[in-house]
Design goal:
The complex is a heterodimer of chains A (109) and B (111).
Chain A (H helix, E strand, L loop, with lengths): L2 E3 L3 E5 L4 E8 L5 E7 L6 E6 L3 E5 L2 E6 L4 E6 L8 E8 L5 E3 L3 E6 L1
Parallel strand pairs in A: 2-11
Antiparallel strand pairs in A: 1-3, 3-8, 4-5, 4-9, 6-7, 7-8, 9-10, 9-11
Chain B lengths: L4 E3 L2 E4 L5 E6 L6 E7 L6 E7 L2 E5 L6 E5 L5 E5 L8 E8 L6 E2 L3 E5 L1
Parallel strand pairs in B: 2-11
Antiparallel strand pairs in B: 1-3, 3-8, 4-5, 4-9, 5-6, 7-8, 9-10, 9-11
Classes of the chains: A mainly beta (109), B mainly beta (111).
Protein backbone atom coordinates (compact mmCIF):
# COMPACT_ATOMS: atom_id res chain seq x y z
CA UNK A 1 0.00 0.00 0.00
CA UNK A 2 0.92 3.63 -0.14
CA UNK A 3 0.59 6.14 2.63
CA UNK A 4 1.85 9.70 2.85
CA UNK A 5 1.24 11.66 6.05
CA UNK A 6 1.68 15.33 6.74
CA UNK A 7 -0.02 17.67 9.21
CA UNK A 8 -3.30 19.13 8.00
CA UNK A 9 -2.71 22.68 9.16
CA UNK A 10 0.08 24.82 10.61
CA UNK A 11 0.34 28.44 11.63
CA UNK A 12 3.50 30.53 11.81
CA UNK A 13 4.54 34.14 12.24
CA UNK A 14 5.91 36.41 9.53
CA UNK A 15 9.71 36.43 9.61
CA UNK A 16 9.93 33.14 11.51
CA UNK A 17 10.94 29.61 10.46
CA UNK A 18 8.57 26.68 9.99
CA UNK A 19 9.22 22.99 9.38
CA UNK A 20 6.61 20.85 7.64
CA UNK A 21 7.10 17.13 8.12
CA UNK A 22 6.15 14.30 5.83
CA UNK A 23 6.34 10.56 6.44
CA UNK A 24 5.73 8.00 3.77
CA UNK A 25 5.30 4.30 3.13
CA UNK A 26 5.24 3.42 -0.54
CA UNK A 27 5.86 0.43 -2.75
CA UNK A 28 9.23 1.44 -4.12
CA UNK A 29 10.83 4.86 -3.96
CA UNK A 30 12.50 6.95 -6.63
CA UNK A 31 12.33 10.38 -5.05
CA UNK A 32 10.30 12.85 -3.02
CA UNK A 33 8.81 16.15 -4.19
CA UNK A 34 7.57 19.23 -2.42
CA UNK A 35 5.08 21.51 -4.14
CA UNK A 36 3.39 24.75 -3.13
CA UNK A 37 -0.24 25.28 -4.05
CA UNK A 38 -2.32 28.41 -3.58
CA UNK A 39 -6.07 27.83 -3.44
CA UNK A 40 -7.56 27.19 -6.86
CA UNK A 41 -4.18 27.35 -8.58
CA UNK A 42 -1.75 24.81 -10.00
CA UNK A 43 0.90 23.28 -7.77
CA UNK A 44 4.32 24.81 -8.31
CA UNK A 45 7.50 22.77 -7.94
CA UNK A 46 9.72 23.51 -4.93
CA UNK A 47 12.16 20.61 -4.58
CA UNK A 48 12.97 17.03 -5.53
CA UNK A 49 15.10 14.85 -3.23
CA UNK A 50 16.47 11.54 -4.43
CA UNK A 51 19.34 11.01 -2.00
CA UNK A 52 19.49 11.45 1.78
CA UNK A 53 20.39 14.84 3.11
CA UNK A 54 19.50 18.47 2.98
CA UNK A 55 19.03 20.50 -0.19
CA UNK A 56 18.87 24.26 0.15
CA UNK A 57 17.29 26.59 -2.35
CA UNK A 58 17.02 30.16 -1.16
CA UNK A 59 14.55 30.47 1.72
CA UNK A 60 13.39 26.88 1.22
CA UNK A 61 15.25 23.70 2.19
CA UNK A 62 14.18 20.08 1.95
CA UNK A 63 15.52 17.09 3.84
CA UNK A 64 15.18 13.39 3.11
CA UNK A 65 15.90 10.24 5.11
CA UNK A 66 15.05 7.20 3.02
CA UNK A 67 15.72 4.72 5.82
CA UNK A 68 13.18 6.49 8.04
CA UNK A 69 10.67 7.26 5.29
CA UNK A 70 10.81 10.88 6.36
CA UNK A 71 11.18 14.29 4.80
CA UNK A 72 10.70 17.86 5.86
CA UNK A 73 10.38 21.22 4.16
CA UNK A 74 11.94 24.14 5.98
CA UNK A 75 10.78 27.65 5.18
CA UNK A 76 12.82 30.57 6.54
CA UNK A 77 12.11 34.30 6.81
CA UNK A 78 8.43 33.65 6.30
CA UNK A 79 6.47 36.10 4.20
CA UNK A 80 2.71 36.57 4.00
CA UNK A 81 2.77 35.25 0.42
CA UNK A 82 4.01 31.90 1.79
CA UNK A 83 0.48 31.25 3.05
CA UNK A 84 -0.47 28.25 0.91
CA UNK A 85 -0.78 24.48 0.96
CA UNK A 86 2.45 22.50 0.83
CA UNK A 87 2.24 19.11 -0.81
CA UNK A 88 4.57 16.20 -0.21
CA UNK A 89 4.66 13.66 -3.05
CA UNK A 90 6.54 10.42 -3.65
CA UNK A 91 7.65 9.11 -7.02
CA UNK A 92 7.18 5.39 -6.61
CA UNK A 93 8.86 2.63 -8.58
CA UNK A 94 5.47 1.97 -10.16
CA UNK A 95 5.82 5.20 -12.16
CA UNK A 96 3.27 7.02 -10.02
CA UNK A 97 3.64 10.39 -8.31
CA UNK A 98 1.47 10.05 -5.22
CA UNK A 99 0.57 13.13 -3.21
CA UNK A 100 -0.16 13.54 0.47
CA UNK A 101 -3.23 15.54 1.46
CA UNK A 102 -1.18 18.69 1.93
CA UNK A 103 -0.41 21.01 4.82
CA UNK A 104 -2.27 24.31 4.88
CA UNK A 105 0.15 26.94 6.21
CA UNK A 106 -1.19 30.22 7.53
CA UNK A 107 1.18 33.10 8.18
CA UNK A 108 0.16 35.72 10.71
CA UNK A 109 1.70 39.22 10.89
CA UNK B 1 4.12 29.87 -16.79
CA UNK B 2 5.04 26.18 -16.47
CA UNK B 3 4.86 25.52 -20.22
CA UNK B 4 2.07 22.97 -19.76
CA UNK B 5 -1.19 23.99 -21.44
CA UNK B 6 -4.60 22.69 -20.50
CA UNK B 7 -7.84 23.43 -22.29
CA UNK B 8 -10.51 24.37 -21.58
CA UNK B 9 -9.96 26.34 -18.37
CA UNK B 10 -13.58 25.99 -17.32
CA UNK B 11 -16.28 23.54 -18.34
CA UNK B 12 -19.88 23.33 -17.21
CA UNK B 13 -21.89 20.34 -18.31
CA UNK B 14 -24.91 18.28 -17.30
CA UNK B 15 -25.01 14.91 -15.60
CA UNK B 16 -24.77 12.00 -18.00
CA UNK B 17 -22.72 13.93 -20.53
CA UNK B 18 -19.22 13.25 -21.85
CA UNK B 19 -16.33 15.72 -21.96
CA UNK B 20 -12.74 15.72 -23.19
CA UNK B 21 -9.96 17.58 -21.41
CA UNK B 22 -6.79 18.35 -23.30
CA UNK B 23 -3.19 18.71 -22.15
CA UNK B 24 -0.14 19.84 -24.12
CA UNK B 25 3.07 19.01 -22.23
CA UNK B 26 6.21 21.12 -22.13
CA UNK B 27 8.37 20.84 -25.20
CA UNK B 28 10.52 17.72 -24.90
CA UNK B 29 8.59 16.16 -22.02
CA UNK B 30 7.55 12.57 -22.72
CA UNK B 31 5.56 11.92 -19.52
CA UNK B 32 2.06 13.17 -18.84
CA UNK B 33 0.27 12.65 -15.53
CA UNK B 34 -3.41 13.34 -14.84
CA UNK B 35 -4.79 14.27 -11.41
CA UNK B 36 -8.21 15.03 -9.95
CA UNK B 37 -8.58 17.51 -7.10
CA UNK B 38 -11.99 17.87 -5.50
CA UNK B 39 -12.81 20.89 -3.34
CA UNK B 40 -10.38 21.14 -0.42
CA UNK B 41 -9.02 17.68 -1.19
CA UNK B 42 -5.61 16.42 -2.14
CA UNK B 43 -4.44 15.54 -5.61
CA UNK B 44 -5.65 12.09 -6.64
CA UNK B 45 -3.45 10.32 -9.17
CA UNK B 46 -5.42 9.09 -12.17
CA UNK B 47 -3.01 7.91 -14.85
CA UNK B 48 0.51 8.30 -16.28
CA UNK B 49 1.49 8.10 -19.93
CA UNK B 50 5.02 7.97 -21.25
CA UNK B 51 5.76 8.48 -24.94
CA UNK B 52 2.32 7.28 -25.97
CA UNK B 53 2.08 4.28 -23.67
CA UNK B 54 0.22 3.89 -20.42
CA UNK B 55 2.76 3.55 -17.59
CA UNK B 56 0.67 3.54 -14.44
CA UNK B 57 -2.93 3.72 -13.35
CA UNK B 58 -4.30 5.10 -10.12
CA UNK B 59 -7.85 5.25 -8.83
CA UNK B 60 -9.31 6.05 -12.21
CA UNK B 61 -12.97 5.21 -12.71
CA UNK B 62 -14.01 2.97 -15.59
CA UNK B 63 -16.05 5.91 -16.92
CA UNK B 64 -12.78 7.79 -17.38
CA UNK B 65 -10.17 7.07 -20.03
CA UNK B 66 -7.09 8.76 -21.36
CA UNK B 67 -4.64 8.58 -24.20
CA UNK B 68 -1.43 10.19 -25.34
CA UNK B 69 -1.02 10.93 -29.03
CA UNK B 70 2.11 10.74 -31.24
CA UNK B 71 2.64 14.51 -30.85
CA UNK B 72 2.65 13.81 -27.06
CA UNK B 73 -0.45 15.79 -26.19
CA UNK B 74 -2.90 13.92 -24.01
CA UNK B 75 -6.64 13.81 -23.59
CA UNK B 76 -8.70 12.74 -20.60
CA UNK B 77 -12.21 11.58 -21.47
CA UNK B 78 -14.89 11.62 -18.78
CA UNK B 79 -18.23 10.01 -19.59
CA UNK B 80 -21.59 9.45 -17.88
CA UNK B 81 -20.73 12.40 -15.70
CA UNK B 82 -22.01 12.59 -12.14
CA UNK B 83 -22.24 15.52 -9.75
CA UNK B 84 -19.33 14.06 -7.79
CA UNK B 85 -17.05 14.37 -10.79
CA UNK B 86 -17.00 18.14 -10.33
CA UNK B 87 -13.37 18.97 -9.58
CA UNK B 88 -10.18 20.55 -10.83
CA UNK B 89 -8.38 18.28 -13.26
CA UNK B 90 -4.65 18.86 -13.60
CA UNK B 91 -2.13 17.44 -15.93
CA UNK B 92 1.60 17.55 -15.31
CA UNK B 93 4.52 16.74 -17.56
CA UNK B 94 8.12 15.73 -17.01
CA UNK B 95 11.06 14.53 -19.05
CA UNK B 96 11.03 11.15 -17.34
CA UNK B 97 11.52 10.67 -13.61
CA UNK B 98 12.01 13.98 -11.91
CA UNK B 99 10.30 17.26 -11.39
CA UNK B 100 6.83 17.41 -12.88
CA UNK B 101 5.36 20.73 -14.01
CA UNK B 102 1.63 21.34 -13.74
CA UNK B 103 -0.78 23.02 -16.08
CA UNK B 104 -3.30 25.54 -14.79
CA UNK B 105 -6.02 22.92 -14.64
CA UNK B 106 -9.52 22.51 -16.01
CA UNK B 107 -12.33 23.31 -13.60
CA UNK B 108 -15.19 20.93 -14.37
CA UNK B 109 -18.63 21.66 -12.97
CA UNK B 110 -21.34 19.04 -13.43
CA UNK B 111 -24.87 20.33 -12.90
Amino acid sequence: GQNIDQPTEMTATEGAIVQINCTYQTSGFNGLFWYQQHAGEAPTFLSYNVLDGLEEKGRFSSFLSRSKGYSYLLLKELQMKDSASYLCAVYSSASKIIFGSGTRLSIRP
Amino acid sequence: DSGVTQTPKHLITATGQRVTLRCSPRSGDLSVYWYQQSLDQGLQFLIHYYNGEERAKGNILERFSAQQFPDLHSELNLSSLELGDSALYFCASSVEAGEAFFGQGTRLTVV
